[in-house]
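Supplementary Note 3. Input sequence used for the single-chain structure prediction.
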Amino acid sequence: MAFVNDLVAEVEGIFRGSWNSRAGQVVPDVNAVGLGKSAATIDASVLYADLADSTALVDNHYAAFAAEIYKVYLVCAARIIKINAGVITAYDGDRIMAVFVGAGKEEKAVVCGMKINWAIANIVNPSIQRSYSTSIYRVAHHVGVDTGALFVARVGVRNDNDLVWVGPAANYAAKMSGIAEDNTIFISGNTYDALPLRARVGASPQMPMWKSRTWTLYPNRRLFSSNWVWNPDQ
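The predicted structure, written as discrete structure tokens, is reproduced below.
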């Protein structure tokens, strides 16, 4: 019973102890947060980019082909996140999470989603067509962006731990990236409100980039969607 007793003591210690939380201005890494009840709080825009229908991909294609799709999607998303001042916080199978902080964080995250859209349409899918001319498979994906306070804690055990990002923005961004509409970016109302004009309207003559939506699962939350793309070199 020694192991069980130790585990009970550790669990009860977590519930009874006090949090030591500090405000942060940068995205913390795992070594910046203690493994005990230490945490950092940051105000951030959270982006989730998710490869659509990966279950069908692995069910209907060779594993090597599916792995190539995972790799090209995630490498494009990761590189675009990094050139737009985002910090990658997690890879989760076929999706990626990133956090943006500081002035203009909402615009950086939203434009990042549009640039990933561009890469899918202009790099990834044309390359699939050239490399596998008989395949009809084309990558589709979803992006979700929400903004708000995050409570960042370190979870796990010594030598095997990571950060957990607690707050509505992280959860809702993940939920938005699961809305099943191909190549659509979904953003929260507070993210939309913080966007400058250049990230709200485009083209010539100008037209809105975003449509106000009703979110069936969460009808009280404002939601906007877009299929626009943005060249990563711009």
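The longest helix spans residues 105-131. The chain has one domain: 19-25+37-226.
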